[in-house]
Amino acid sequence: MSLIMQLPKIMEESRKAYEQIIDTVDQHAFAITEIIGKADIGYKRFDNIVARGDNLQFMKFLIDQKDLKGKINLIYIDPPFFSKNNYRAEIKLKSNSIKKIPMITQKAYYDAWEKGMQDYLKMLTIRLLLMKDLLSENGSIWIHLDWHAVHYVKIIMDEIFGEENFINEIIWHYKSGGASKRRFARKHDTLLFYSKSKDYYFLPQKEKSYNRDFKPYRFKGVKEYRDEFGWYTMVNRKDVWMLDMVGRTSAERTGYVTQKPESLIRRILESCTVEGDICADFFGGSGTLAATANKMGRKWISCDIGKLATLFTHKRLVQEGADYVFYEERNGDKDQASGKIDVDVSLNKSHITDMDILRVELKGYRPESLDDIPVEPKYLPVIEKIIEDDPLQFVAYWSVDYNYQGDINRPDACFCKDNKGIETVYETIGLEFGDVGIKVVDIFGNSSFTVVKIMK
User: Fold this and answer.
1) CB neighbours (10 Å) of residue 205?
2) At 77, is the secondary structure helix, strand, or coil?
3) For 100, left (φ over 0), alpha (ψ -120 to 50), or beta?
């Protein structure tokens, strides 16, 4: 049976699964494990959210526990494309004690589906039904795909949101990749833009349209402008966007394999949202929507199930000074014991004031087990040598909470690894310190936490 003939069955099974989820009491609680910056759950306000876990259960959590049904103004998702590829991230390690460390690749995520396109479409359809519940009446949803599945998803979106609420098919055209001697080069992705109702918010943006031969038209009543290329007019932005991918030397590059450029998300947000609106991405990846929304004064939610995606998002937002609450899906076991942290904490009297100086030095980190490291077996001997000789190479992010209360980590200082390495010493001065909580996230996304009691 052809796939087009199976779409009604896919839709029916997805609706039944969706209804079962809606009617089920939430068994997969999401707990706050970290509060970054000035976010404070004590206030009756919306706080930006980063979440790690199944986005299906997280959306259910947002509806049941956070009262966000019908309150999200814009949803952008960049789900797997049904590319049948296994995506990997490159790791570059430098060490003074180890020479010639090879480039190591680690698993990022699988875009392969055992039962084929039917399984993929069912996965996406169930989630789109929940996204419709979360979307506000004047909101819009953007689905970012490519040639693999976009045509089938268009039919499903017509069914869920209505053909009358289809607004645009946006073509994102880029220069990179796609070359072949057997076909025309594939140089674009497709974004499907739908609203929830006819009352959706949209603010047209302007762009340059160069005159033929770059010469002035001199039409009556038409404003013309001139730049270094020639004469142009300003017109409403068209549905084909020529934007570069995130280059290897770009300042916004995180290293996440399918990272999208902030310029792409900015175009969407400036057209479909205003400051203060809530924007969400339930396939968060490297956190591009969250980072862009944060810079533009929007509120945001970013969720991904992958440890690596969460790490990239966490580092990116910490470095940008974002304020947010970090949720993790909890299934009865604390996901905080996947490594051993070697840290030295001391408290000494200041010689010039009556205050104390707290000094925290991260001296080492060892993964709990090589089983937690998602690399091919051929890299394990190199990994083991680095663990023995220079274990701090594995630290991607660490933080210090010098008044840990025993439930939620509220770091007073955060440190992220960059091309120059990572700071390993933190000092601060104060009158009173509590227990010190130290969190470490390694380059594979594994999270570890330890508490040091201050000896006074």
Assistant:
1) 10
2) strand
3) left
In DSSP terms, which residues pair with 382 in a beta bridge?
none
Q: Does domain 3-201+239-329 have CATH number 3.40.50.150?
A: yes
Six-digit token string for 209: 């349209």
Task: Report H helices in 135-240.
Answer: 150-161
Going by C-alpha positions, the residue among 219, 239, 242, 243 that lies closest to residue 231 is 219
- How much is the pTM? 0.91
pLDDT at 110: 66
Do residues 265 and 14 make contact, with C-beta atoms less than 8 angstroms apart? Answer: no
Q: Where are the alpha helices (DSSP H) in 184-341?
A: 262-272, 288-295, 307-319
pLDDT band at 393 (very low <50, low <70, confident <90, very high): confident
**Domain edges within the chain:** 3-201+239-329, 339-452
Residue 66's nearest CA partner among 81, 82, 51 is: 51
Q: CATH top-level class for 339-452? A: mainly beta
Q: What is the mean pLDDT of the chain?
A: 89
Are the C-beta atoms of residues 205 and 237 closer than 8 Å to each other?
A: yes
Q: What's the residue count for the chain?
A: 456
Cα distances (angstroms) measured from residue 149 to each of 168, 286, 387, 451: 17, 22, 42, 48
Cα 438 to Cα 3, 32, 179, 300, distances in angstroms: 52, 16, 47, 27
- Average pLDDT score over residue span 189-207: 97
Q: What is the edge-to-edge ordering of all strands in the sheet holding 206-210?
A: 206-210, 231-236, 225-226
Going by the DSSP 8-state scheme, the letter that residue 388 receives in this structure is H
Retrieve residue 177's tokens.
Answer: 């990749």
- Report the C-alpha gap between 286 and 223 in whole angstroms: 41
